[in-house]
Amino acid sequence: MDRKKVNMINNAQGKIFENQILAACLGYLYDGRACVDKIPEPFGVTKKDYKTGEFSGRFFSHKKAQPDFQGTVTGGRSIVFEAKKTEKNKIALSVLSSNQEKILEQHYRLGAITGVCVCIKDEFYFVPYALWRLCSEQWDRKYFVPEDLRGFKVKFNGAVNFLDMVNGKAVENMNIFVKE
User: Which CATH class is domain 3-41+55-177?
Assistant: First the structure.
């Protein structure tokens, strides 16, 4: 399969994953538990035709991208996280751009709940940024495998319930997601 087709498939799968997270965001909002929004992709208009109302544009560099989701959980704490999906057996740390890491680090240092919502094949995890940033030191490698993330597996019911671990714990009550 050519690279263009692979990119189109990966992009479509990424959008489905983000929509599954958005479904959970709506549920959390309805329950009064959290208000979390998807941050739009950086996009710029390159040409406007005022007569027809049409325009051309382009997405900016992946390097300038911010984390995908930001919001507030009950009690007033901020939550900031990136969403990444892979069909491989591991998720590489390099999937985050340097700008995404920088922003997650800033929010982490200020006490926000920070993480990376990950889909490896058909398994869903909400990985604390505190763990993500130390992966190289703890495991002497630059990727996670599902076994590393077992304690951070989240519930899935058509929606990726990123605040609800399968072990019954709630992200907003877990100290590992925030800087002490």
Answer: alpha beta
